[in-house]
């Protein structure tokens, strides 16, 4: 049973998510702003925190900064209505292990939570597109070649995610196991979080598209 | 200095505080500021006093120099802050103007004749310091602000005074009698300008404030119009068709898209680039068929004049229409990518799929509108489908790099 904390400033949305989540998920609590979220995470120690990006008191990024900054190992899945590159790249670089939009179906959300609980990453098609775009748009040579560029295989996996393939379908398409797909995605997540190419943030700010 | 104790701020301990010359905000040596802090007066007043005294036989200058030598500098970490040269220039201008005034009236030549002016001036300044503190603060901050902000105006004032000085010397030599009246006028006008500056600056500031407020109100009106014209209407429509879940979804999606565009999308020509055109087409087909179409674009390219990308977009639209109409898929994914000289568009659904070989030859949808069209324009189309496995159409086109 995965223990989940829902952090969102819209009560209606919190109860909607609660109702939609499958039986394999136990919602242990809810929080409606940054302060109550930080407190609830410390008290309840959930496996996964469903984190809204826009909230009073600094938003999801502030929660990430305070909780992960204090050395917590809690895993975060960002959930937002916004598809703006700034927000997506912002929370991922803040430490979230995945990003999904709020129009995701209950079943998909349940899958995504389980995946994050297992330590894997969850990329929506749009996030995959952003990553491909951000890593491709660089003309400057990478500072750290290991972190600052994607491997051919990672690029292929991301492209298939952007095309709307599920992990299982990607595994079938590339003749690899689902576990390997997950490994590639986690590796991309790590690069996304650790690469100190300033272009990533600059790219996200410049591109205020949905 | 005896009432210093009562006037001193609570945090300054001890009965007597040593005078210091602060680095921050100094104009010359920080003497005036230090003295002002000691006497609980405004530094502007002290500065004017020094200027006035300097005009009278240079007493102010000597006093300043002595104070400078005997007062220690306040310790300051880091690089010394820059002086506010424009303020210094303003004080110098006042000094020069007073000096010119003194020469003209002949007061300074006698030495004693100017003293009443100086004493009166200092008294006036101290009185002014005692006046309604709020109002005074407004005057002073207005004046210094306007001096700081309008360097051009200050420079102009200084130039005027300098020109007046030069003119004065010329007149001394030649047109002493006639020129004096003229000079008086110039000096008076200059003085009036100095006096009027804060007031003008205040007026200007008020005008700016008003304009900003007006812009804010216009923005608010625009938001209100947007919410009223589209969002409220859509919500009403949704309530009316609440029984038809497909139509409700369609309305909500189209409203969401419109709102997002309005909020985030920079105003751009919808058909200037490939990504924008793909988004527009997907939006149109989503509206027409009520099936959500998720678009992801990587890279972008301007549309070509040769019509190759135009043909590709038509093929992409036909693929979306097919998926929306026949696949029964709950959603459609569109992925457009520009990489180097190659443009690729994928249209994928998770619907029922079909047997490609079993499609009758006369069905134009796939053969003509998609595959045929792409090939005629030098591109390629590939359709991957199987019954029960969904369908994916892949369109590729080579373009010349701009």
Automatic annotation (TrEMBL), chain A:
Coiled coil spans: none
CDD domains noted in UniProt: LuxR_C_like, REC_NarL-like
Keywords: DNA-binding, Phosphoprotein, Transcription, Transcription regulation
4-aspartylphosphate sites (modified residues): 52
Residues making up the signal peptide according to the UniProt record: none
Residues of the Response regulatory domain: 3-117
Residues covered by the HTH luxR-type domain: 143-208
InterPro entries found in the cross-reference section: CheY-like_superfamily, NreC/VraR/RcsB-like_REC, Sig_transdc_resp-reg_C-effctor, Sig_transdc_resp-reg_receiver, Tscrpt_reg_LuxR_C, WalR-like
Pfam families registered for this protein in UniProt: GerE, Response_reg
Superkingdom assignment: Bacteria
Gene3D superfamilies referenced in this protein's UniProt entry, alphabetically: 3.40.50.2300
Protein name: Response regulator transcription factor
Native organism: Nonomuraea ferruginea
TrEMBL record, chain B:
Annotated ranges, domain Phage shock protein PspC N-terminal: 17-74
Keyword Repeat part of the UniProt annotation: no
InterPro entries, alphabetized: HATPase_dom, Phageshock_PspC_N, Sensor_HK_TwoCompSys
Record carries keyword Isomerase: no
Pfam families: HATPase_c, PspC
UniProt KW keywords: Kinase, Membrane, Transferase, Transmembrane, Transmembrane helix, Two-component regulatory system
Location of the Histidine kinase/HSP90-like ATPase domain: 317-400
Top-level taxon of origin: Bacteria
Transmembrane segments: 44-67, 88-106, 152-171, 183-204
Protein name (database record): PspC domain-containing protein
UniProt source species: Nonomuraea harbinensis
């Amino acid at each position: 049973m995965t223990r989940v904390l829902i952090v969102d400033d819209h009560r209606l949305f919190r109860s909607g998510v609660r109702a939609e989540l499958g039986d394999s998920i136990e919602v242990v609590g809810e929080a409606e702003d940054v302060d109550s979220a930080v407190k609830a995470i410390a008290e309840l120690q959930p496996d996964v925190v469903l984190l809204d990006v826009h909230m009073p008191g600094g938003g999801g990024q502030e929660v990430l900064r305070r909780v992960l900054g204090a050395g917590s190992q809690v895993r975060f899945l960002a959930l937002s209505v916004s598809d703006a590159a700034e927000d997506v790249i912002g929370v991922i670089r803040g430490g979230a292990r995945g990003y999904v939009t709020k129009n995701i179906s209950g079943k998909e959300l349940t899958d995504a939570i389980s995946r994050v609980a297992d330590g894997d990453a969850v990329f929506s098609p749009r996030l995959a597109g952003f990553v491909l775009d951000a890593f491709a748009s660089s003309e400057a040579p990478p500072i750290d070649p290991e972190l600052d560029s994607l491997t051919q295989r990672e690029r292929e996996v991301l492209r298939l995610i952007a095309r709307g393939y599920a992990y299982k379908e990607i595994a079938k398409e590339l003749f690899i196991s689902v576990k390997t797909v997950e490994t590639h995605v986690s590796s991309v997540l790590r690069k996304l979080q650790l690469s100190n190419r300033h272009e990533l943030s600059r790219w996200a700010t410049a591109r205020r598209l949905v | 200095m005896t009432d210093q104790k009562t006037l001193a701020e609570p945090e300054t301990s001890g009965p007597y505080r040593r005078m210091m010359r602060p680095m921050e905000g100094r104009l010359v040596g920080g003497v005036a500021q230090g003295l002002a802090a000691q006497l609980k007066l405004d530094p502007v007043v002290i500065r004017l006093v020094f200027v006035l005294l300097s005009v009278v036989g240079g007493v102010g200058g000597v006093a300043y120099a002595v104070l400078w030598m005997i007062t220690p500098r306040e310790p300051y970490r880091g690089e010394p802050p820059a002086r506010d040269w424009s303020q210094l220039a303003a004080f110098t201008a006042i000094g020069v103007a007073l000096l010119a005034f003194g020469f003209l009236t002949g007061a300074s030549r006698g030495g004693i004749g100017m003293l009443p002016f100086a004493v009166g001036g200092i008294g006036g300044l101290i009185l002014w310091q005692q006046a309604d503190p709020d109002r005074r603060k407004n005057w002073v901050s207005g004046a210094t602000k306007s001096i700081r902000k309008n360097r051009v105006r200050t420079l102009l004032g200084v130039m005027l005074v300098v020109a007046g000085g030069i003119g004065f010397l010329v007149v001394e030599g030649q047109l002493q009698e006639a020129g004096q009246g003229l000079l008086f006028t110039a000096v008076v006008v200059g003085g009036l300008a100095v006096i009027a500056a804060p007031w003008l600056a205040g007026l200007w500031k008020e005008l700016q404030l008003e304009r900003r407020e007006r812009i804010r109100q216009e923005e608010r009106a625009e938001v209100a119009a947007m919410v009223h014209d589209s969002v409220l209407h859509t919500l009403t429509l949704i309530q009316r068709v609440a029984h038809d879940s497909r139509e409700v979804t369609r309305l909500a999606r189209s409203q969401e898209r419109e709102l997002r565009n309005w909020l985030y999308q920079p105003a751009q020509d919808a058909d200037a680039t490939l990504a924008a055109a793909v988004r527009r087409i997907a939006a149109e087909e989503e509206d027409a068929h009520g099936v959500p179409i998720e678009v992801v674009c990587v890279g972008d390219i301007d549309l070509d004049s040769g019509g190759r990308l135009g043909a590709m977009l038509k093929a992409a639209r036909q693929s979306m229409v097919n998926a929306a109409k026949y696949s029964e898929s709950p959603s459609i994914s569109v992925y457009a990518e520009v990489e180097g000289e190659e443009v690729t568009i994928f249209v994928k659904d998770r619907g029922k799929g079909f047997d490609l070989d079993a499609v009758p030859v006369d069905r134009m949808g796939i053969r003509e509108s998609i595959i045929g069209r792409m090939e005629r324009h030098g591109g390629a189309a590939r359709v991957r489908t199987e019954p029960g496995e969904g369908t994916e159409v892949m369109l590729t086109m080579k373009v010349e790099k701009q």
